[in-house]
């Protein structure tokens, strides 16, 4: 379970530890471009923004804003969360192309 706050994760007596998430430094960025690479030790996701409305415009300019580096195990958990999120979205709104 996630709840807002400033404390670190705190174990409780239940099956799942309580987790408090510090959002005071949270930044939001819109991205419409993503690439992924990996090595045996890490998975790298790079996010950016393509501001071109005309996709035929050359050269296409993409501003890269964020790079997220995680372990393959964390990437697999992220994959599971993202897969579930997309399935729920499609159940509510119809299939994505």
TrEMBL record:
UniProt-recorded name of the protein: DUF3467 domain-containing protein
Source organism, top-level taxon: Bacteria
Protein species of origin: Methylobacterium oryzihabitans
Region (Disordered): 1-21
Compositionally biased region (Low complexity): 1-15
């Amino acid at each position: 379970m996630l709840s807002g706050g400033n404390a670190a994760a705190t174990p409780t007596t239940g099956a799942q530890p309580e987790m408090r998430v510090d959002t005071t430094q949270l930044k939001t960025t819109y991205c419409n471009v993503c690439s992924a690479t990996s090595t045996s030790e890490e998975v790298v996701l790079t996010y950016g923004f393509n501001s071109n409305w005309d996709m035929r415009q050359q050269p296409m300019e993409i501003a890269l804003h964020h790079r997220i580096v995680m372990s393959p195990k964390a990437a697999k958990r992220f994959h599971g969360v993202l897969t579930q999120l997309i399935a729920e979205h499609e159940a509510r709104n119809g299939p994505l192309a």
